[in-house]
Amino acid sequence: MQTRIRRSPAAMPVRIDGRRGPLQGRIDNISRTGARLRHGGEVPKGERLAIRLAGEDVTVTVLWSRGPLAGIRFAGPLAPERLAAIAGGERPELEEGAPQRVPAPGPPSSSCGMCRCSAMI
């Protein structure tokens, strides 16, 4: 049985290091396995990046990228305590039996109006 992990809102600045040089960005929401990243440059799908998150370097892979937004997956899941610290003390609960999904092409979802963030990372 697959488990979907809820996202927690976050507004955390991050430094992004990739093939195109350093960028400044912000994590908009986060889960144990990934996050939605807002950035001011170009981060193509499939690119591996290093981001500076809560004082630590974390390796991520870009799952999708649309304009200033990107969905990223962490190289390994974050520990619940680390996620709670990053998300401002929130500890997202697991939803048992919910399938993991990735964004699909189509119009923006109603969740934020700017992207397809209702699709889970």
UniProtKB/TrEMBL annotation:
Domain PilZ: 6-76
Pfam families: PilZ (PF07238)
Residues annotated as signal peptide: none
UniProt GO MF annotations: cyclic-di-GMP binding
Sequence segments annotated as region (Disordered): 1-27
Name the UniProt record assigns to this protein: PilZ domain-containing protein
Species of the source: Hasllibacter halocynthiae
